[in-house]
What does this fold into?
Amino acid sequence: MTPNNPMVMEVNRLVGDLLAGGERLLLPGVGSLKPVTRPAYRISKKEVMPPLRTVEFSSEERGLSLVDRIAVAAACTQEESEEVYRRWLGHTQQEGVLTIEGIGVLKQHHFKVDEAFDKRLNPAGRKPMPVRRRRKGMDWMVLIGILAILVAGGIAWYGYRLMQQKPTTKVQPVESSYTKPDTTSVAQPNDAVAEVATPTTPAPSVQSKPSQEVQRMTSGAKYVVLGVFSTEENARRAVAEAAVGADPLHCSIYYFGQKWMVSPFVSESAADANDFRKAHAAAYPDLWVYQAK
It folds into this structure.
């Protein structure tokens, strides 16, 4: 690893900003990093552990692709961002261990958060809080502590949103031969991403009656993705489960490289796709948008 490499430092900073902002991040070819909040719990009659934020790893490739986030942050092309990602991964991943300086270390499918980044996630610290019993009402010490955690989290989120609205330092890619990664690794980012191409074939605004057959995607169309699966059987199982859930979705299955993608909505408009994703975010928090090539 080269900790003083400007490109590595910029991508590390981007990863930290996204995770601190609560974004689930897809690292193509590696897996996903997911911010989680562990609830408060009582450790004794006199002490309670406040809610704590951390980051967990999943080998399932879901979330916002770091490749796409690099393209947005650096204002570069998809090919350039893929090259930057490949070089960054080459610097940070050694002998199966991924070290993101200042963020954490991924080893044997376990992500250990760096101490400095842990303080960023938990500005109030990890120390237990005293429980003072009162005859009436709730424990105000616990209430104040939880309120402080929520306020700190809100400030961090607000700062992250401001960061997204400002142009960041452009990462300069270096020309290099590069084999484009599996298309399963490319997910279109959220609202911050503008439409990058005019679709060659118009896609329907809403897919009202999903086909039972596996379909091929339309170039330029925006697909809301429920998940990408390694077998068609698993994809069909996901379609069936979504149709009978608390918020039923009627999905179709599409070829996605050598895998199968399940999508409940397709549109020409990135705004419409993102509106659909937000409307169903409560029941399906991991929905994301992909623009077909």
